[in-house]
Amino acid sequence: AQSVTQLDSQVPVFEEAPVELRCNYSSSVSVYLFWYVQYPNQGLQLLLKYLSGSTLVESINGFEAEFNKSQTSFHLRKPSVHISDTAEYFCAVIYTGTASKLTFGTGTRLQVTL
Amino acid sequence: ETGVTQSPTHLIKTRGQQVTLRCSSQSGHNTVSWYQQALGQGPQFIFQYYREEENGRGNFPPRFSGLQFPNYSSELNVNALELDDSALYLCASSQEGLAGVDTQYFGPGTRLTVL
Predict the structure, then answer these.
(1) B42: nearest CB among A46, A90, A96
(2) Neighbour-count burial for B62-82, b at 16+ CB within 10 Å, e otherwise
(3) A15-73 pLDDT, tens per residue?
(4) Chain A residues within 8 angstroms (CB to CB) of chain B
(5) Is the confidence at residue A81, as pLDDT, over 60?
(6) Which residue of A49, B59, B88, B98 could cross-link B109, Cys pair, CB 3.0 to 4.6 Å?
């Protein structure tokens, strides 16, 4: 079955500390990978994506994620977080042949404190 | 460039009623996907419309139905509402085609409460 696992439901971190949010997906020949962020009472905003090419992708606000095919992972990292990064983060996968259906993980709540 | 918009923002219905949610896709996009996000969960795929035809469906009963119009806007209809239908309903638009998978851009959602 196609599934996405986000192992950590909540990640508390101090401001300016590094963070890693983990994402694993069930194995498949070909996938497209996304990270979305959701602020309270809002929709989803695309953070970054991997469609093809370089396995390391970056966002404009300092996040990066690396596609690791052998480990079927797409972990999200940021070297120094800010209070404004507090939000819910969702990893999502499109498995080829599924009509561009996004399969989401259950989300990780990133809580940044002073 | 106008983003994805949804209406209404909030809605309260009672069990057994019917509801229609609306979505306007981003300019230039020909595909609309609908997702249901229950409280504390990740979004679940309901169905997708590509050029006015259903192009994939998730594990939702037939009382969830949809439409896509020639301008690529879309409606989600839910009949015989149940308490478990209470959720945030998200619409996403994308430009699908021969080039393969495109990024889906989400609207702000419609919060449906069923009493």
Answers:
(1) A90
(2) eebbbebeeebbbbbebeebe
(3) 999 999 999 999 777 889 999 999 987 889 999 999 888 888 889 889 999 999 999 99
(4) 4, 32, 34, 36, 42-46, 49, 51, 90, 92, 94, 96, 98-107
(5) yes
(6) B88
